[in-house]
Specification:
Layout (H helix, E strand, L loop, with lengths): L25 H10 L9 H7 L7 H45 L3 H4 L2 E6 L6 E3 L2 H20 L24 H9 L15 H10 L6 H10 L4 E3 L6 E2 L2 E2 L8 H5 L3 H12 L6 E7 L15 E8 L3 E5 L1 H6 L5
Parallel strand pairs: 1-6
Antiparallel strand pairs: 2-3, 4-5, 6-7, 7-8
The structure holds iron/sulfur cluster (2 copies) and zinc ion.
Zinc ion binds next to loops.
Length: about 325
Amino acid sequence: MHEGVPQLIRKQPPACCVVCGGRLLARQLADAQQSGNAYPACETVACRMIVSRRGEMSEAGFKHYLQIEASQTQWRLARAELMREKIRVEAQENAAAWAALRLKLKRANQDSSLSLLLPSGPPHARKLTQQRRHAYRDHLAKIIAEALSGPGPGPEPVAATNVAPLTKPSESSLPGRLCAFCGGGCCTRGGERAYLSAATMRRVLAAQPDLASAGALIEAYMAMLPAKSQTGSCINHGPQGCSLSREMRSDICNNYACEALARLQHAQRHAAAPPQTVLLLRRSRDNWQLPSVGPDNAIKAAAVMSEEGGVKRFAVAALLGSKPAL
Ligand code: SF4
Ligand code: SF4
Ligand SMILES: [Zn+2]
């Protein structure tokens, strides 16, 4: 401090909220300066609640508490900001890639096309371990015993999100090919239970009375296991997709629709002109990691899929390098 410069009698309160680090309004800052409040907080309820505990603790105890709460709050806010930025950048990249794909379409298909973003199923398969087989067998034994001793058929549990029960199988080839292009991005939480429950077993038993013994039903399921399962995915998720027949799958598996599939089904049922062409982008994460801050979620594949013309793939680098107008 230079001589002649008057010393501040009272330490100035910080100009930012002591919890979240956000800038205080002029009025809040003036109030804090006037009252000499060393711990001003913004108007967020959570920040105010943390500061309101000042009276319950010693100065040192409160400082320690505040340090922990402030660092957690600021970490959460920084993460949320990162997430917003990531979503913005990915959306911009998706728009550029879809625009480039649209340029590949014949004019007649441009109006009836639908742009969809897909997750990815795990790309690698590995031989099924005995440990996984045993865990699956144990689960089957448990739910079959429950089904055989239970009160009778009841509804199967339903997945929490995006369930769109299919009243009749779609005649379109697009939904099936969409899931094939994705590679089972929603199957990664199937584990060794595959969403199978006592209710599924009751349904299967009602449809196939010849499987009436527990042992026969267990062996019927064990026989359907693939030799290799996709790494980190459901035990029934093999390189060619789900190894169970539709009849043997749970209602959850039969009815689940991720956002992309739900949008396609909705357009097919309700649009005046159902889409004939779908512009597909596939990002590298699975269905349950989207959106989340973390490593790579690059666009792994791009394609134009049509009812008549199959799936035509395009190199992602060339597509994004062509810099179409957004
Ligand atoms: S429902 Fe969605 S996430 Fe699941 S396989 Fe089909 S496209 Fe992939
Ligand atoms: S049973 Fe089939 S559809 Fe269901 S999660 Fe497993 S692999 Fe996916
Ligand atoms: Zn705050």
